[in-house]
Amino acid sequence: MNKVLQQLEIKPSNAHVFEVSPKADVVSKVQETFLRCPGDSKDLYLYYFLKMYRERAIVFVNAISMLRRLVKLLDVLGIPAVGLHASLQQRQRLKFIDRFKRGEKPVLVATDVASRGLDVEGVKYVLHFQVPRSTDAYIHRCGRTARCGGTGLSVLMVNAQEHISFRKLMDSLGRSEKDMQVFALQPTIVHQLHSHLRIALQIDKLQKEIDKSRAKNTWVRRMGAEVDIEVDDMVDEEANDENKAKGRAIKLLRRQLDLLLAKDMGTLGGKGGFRTSAQAIGAKEAEVKLAERAIMQVTQKPKEKFRKSHGLAGGVRSIGVEGKRK
């Protein structure tokens, strides 16, 4: 402000600043909460929320790369989601919004391009997977819920790296951390869902390796054709064999994940109920066998190395909320 006054040749002592527009804030019908996410628990906590609260939700992120990662991960976990970002063509954007409105995809993962002007009836929850870069972005994100006189819930997910950004956001809103309610989790269910996420991340990692290998192979072939160099077919065969092995491992891990999802449906509000101890033991043995078969499918790597790199060392074990094996 002083720089502007100097350019206008106005003495600061003679200047008075008036705020013409009122200070923006989140509407009172939105219940604002925040959630501390230790370590790399954001994926787990997001999965927990979307699994427990199944009404229409928008998940906001700051980057397109994060958006694409979450959409793929949620798809593996059986949660229908669609992504909305600035790089989409208008026709694609309208198509995805329509799917979200019709309930075909009840979860919308979006960058801040969707926080303004998007009016979808029945959006119950807004999740800030990453702390927004500005106060204005936070307010407009929250404004996607509690439309048309309804109520809504906002959950701001904060990890250790975002603590300073979170404090700045609170200061700009004229609040303190104590003014925000803490979103409560059910630890037993969080622990239960951790095994789902662990397997989904393994599937996602293997699929990325396959996609990367295929893209590299295509690029080498194209470059070779341009300079009239013949590429050795042995290279393709080795890559294809490894990709096929990883593909078989993905199928087995997918079956293992399906077993877990079916087992936990009763406790998470789906169809079915609690099982007897004998049924639980039988399902556990099936999970272990599937995990071992998935390990054996990847013959290009030593067995133990593959087990460690994909978190399967020692068979199937439960993992605590903080990522420690028990």
UniProtKB/TrEMBL annotation:
InterPro entries documented for this protein: DEAD_box_RNA_helicase, Helicase_C-like, P-loop_NTPase
SMART domains: HELICc (SM00490)
Keywords: ATP-binding, Helicase, Hydrolase, Nucleotide-binding
Pfam families: Helicase_C
Limits of the Helicase C-terminal domain: 45-191
UniProt keyword annotation of Nucleotide-binding present: yes
Keyword RNA-binding applies: no
Annotated GO CC locations: cytosol
Name of this chain's protein: Putative ATP-dependent RNA helicase
Native source organism of the sequence: Trypanosoma vivax (strain Y486)
Taxonomic classification: Eukaryota, Discoba, Euglenozoa, Kinetoplastea, Metakinetoplastina
